[in-house]
Every structure is written in structure tokens, then in C-alpha cells.
Amino acid sequence: MLIADPQLNPAAVELGNFFPQTAEVVWTALTQPDLLERWLLRPTGFAASVGTHFRFAVPDSSTNAITCEVLVARPYERLTYSWTYRQAEPPTK
Question: How would residue 65 be classed by pLDDT, with cut points 50, 70 and 90?
């Protein structure tokens, strides 16, 4: 499910998914670096704590170009973080 958040940048989207596992299992999968890497990318410096700045390692890259910040961390309920990939092409209008 994609939901546009009117309080964020118009190019931002929220991804919401429903899984048949318990909230504890999903939370663990999204907050443990070895497991998060299976879903997305390898995090460096990640902690499920508001204000934490971390990076995602980009495969075959000499730099960790995706910089992130944890915005919301409510265990077993909601995990929100921003990310910026400075090497990406800006969106076109």
C-alpha cells in the first residue's frame, strides 16, 4: 500500500505492508541489521531510536551513499525513517 503524506515532501511516500507474522517477529526483522539486510540493504549505525542517523550500504559502491534518520520508533507498532540518496536523479515534473 502506498500512501502520500501531505505533511511531507510531495515526492515522499509511506509504505505500509501487512504480514501474517506477529508484530514482534516483524519488528525484529526490521530492526536487526542482519535481518534488515534481507529486506532492503545493510544498515551501518542503525538503532530503532528516534534521531538515530545511519547509512545503508550500497552493494558494489565505494561509499555508503544512502543517509538516513529514524523519525518514529514505536516498538511493534511503527518504524519510520527518512533517507537521501544523493547520487539519485531528482524527480522530474
Answer: confident
CA–CA dist 85, 93 (Å, integer): 19
What number of other Cβ atoms are within 10 A of residue 66's Cβ? Answer: 21
Q: What is the pTM of this model?
A: 0.71
C-alpha cell recorded at residue 77: 507498532
In whole angstroms, what is the distance from residue 66 CA to residue 21 CA?
29
Contact (CB, 8 A) for 26 and 19: yes
Q: What is the pLDDT of residues 11-60, one digit of tens each?
A: 666 666 677 889 999 899 999 999 989 888 889 999 999 999 999 987 77
Which positions ≥6 away from 73 have C-beta within 8 Å? Answer: 48, 49, 50, 79, 80
